[in-house]
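Hi there, hope your week has been kind to you so far. It would help a lot if you went through both lines with me. No rush at all, and the record is pasted right below:

***
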Amino acid sequence: MTLNRLFLLLCVIAVGAPVLAVEGNQCPVVHIVPERLPDLNTPREGHAVFCAGGELMVAGGHTNGFVPTATAEYLSGSEWHQLPMTYIHDHGTALVLRSGRVLLAGGSKEEMGVGQTYGVEMYDPVNHSFTGFGCLNQKRTLASAMELDSGQVVITGNWYDGDDIEMFDGQKFFTSVKPVSVGRVVPYLFRMSQGDVLILSDRDPHDHLSDTIVVDRLHGEPFTVPLLQQWKPLTYNAPTTADAGFIGDEAEGRFAYLMAVRNFERTREKPELKGQPAGQMAVVLVEDTVFTQLPTVCPIPMMSPLDGAEPILYDRGYIVADRRAKLAYLCGVDKDKRFYVVSIGYTERPAPLKLYYTDPLPDCGFYVPALTPQGNLAIIGGSSKKDYDSDNFTPTASAWLIPLGQQDGVTSAANHWPASLLWWLLAVVAVLLVSVSVVVYRRRKKAVLPARQTECMDSREELSEPESSPVNSSEDLLERICQLMDERQLFRNSELKAADVAVELGTNSRYVSDCIRACRGITFTQFVNEYRVGYVQRLLRQHPDLKVVEVYASAGFTSERSFFRIFKDVTGMTTSEWLNRNDR
């Protein structure tokens, strides 16, 4: 074998080994042992779970027989202390305010989850007391609430009744401020700059799935997001913490959230009961009005990595972010009642994932998790029925703590690391061999080239990328690049680079950039921007009711300002001029 062929073979091993390691083991798998907390005094479902005053707290919900309970409990020492509440809040709204107090509002009026209520009260964690003080403008169940910088609270969403947006003034009064374009149940609320709020859900008040996800704004007109036509938001009918997925920085005025999505519309047939995964999960980053899919090192695991693999169901797992640890968590369960937590390192691109799993926990309820001050997840109450199903009539009193804040010394799953470790060791060896081959290759070149020519060759080799096999012609390569853009729409990735295209085509980034410059006379960035502008134009032609600001982000543009500038550079017109043309 010649030295050149050996060099090429070693390069393939060096690049391919890590890829095979990732493909064979989608992400690191770690066994974790949860801590059993004391049981609640009252079994609960449809209750709110939160931390107030440094203590874990549950409020409202219903107990055995689907009967509402007007009680709450807080964990202190080694037991839960039960408290009377002023009103019933079964599937009501609970919001921890900046003051440390907790606003509780609405809920089902009767047994079996029937009706809605107006009642509002405040919980004070200092003296563990509830005080009723007012009523909602509209009776509600399964609503969501968000506190603004002004101290006012936005409340919206309902179950089997009308919906609108109302505002709590922070003191006593609740006032309707705006109708909604579509009714919603437990909607997501995302804060934006300048006191605005985005409102969206995949379900209407009658629990029907929405064909089109419409986003309402507290200030501004509703809009649609093309990305959410393919990736549907994950919604679960239980009280949730509106800011749970917040990863921004209030001090810097940056409002960003993570939202769990999946790429199919949920049906009642439950494919996981047939041993199939319930669609592919992904993560969407929401920053002001921009929705983008968060790139991850590997897909979110949909099947258990253990022997006798079962689908992992994420239905009740809203994303919970621990901003101190720079990690976000998505919870799932399999039919044997093992718990799974996907850890997402959201500050990196692509974001690394890690999958934690427990042994079967037969009496544990799969419920919306709450983040503790120590960075752990609390799973308290809920349904303990097997086979992914829930049962409002027989909730559990169990409480568990998933110790994610203490994971420095955990051990990985026995069936995960050996193959992965072997491939990575092979990769390291291959890289070392490549390095030795390069040194030998350069020394042989220097031995036969004149001194001046050697100096030039060294300079070029240090500045250039390693060459891959040449393509037949620039035209052929351009055709492959264009085909990739048309079929895969890589341009919609706002962070797309020439190297990404090169990886897809089995060449290198220099060939890609040089080919585009030679055939089109433009840079790679200009080439990609032309595709992005064309994509926006197609969307606006096909959907005349859409507004420009509703679609630019889905094409891969990172801001309105850059979009408007690039649109004019590409078309020679402003967006207004183009929209007013009859032949557009």
About this structure: The longest helix spans residues 417-448.
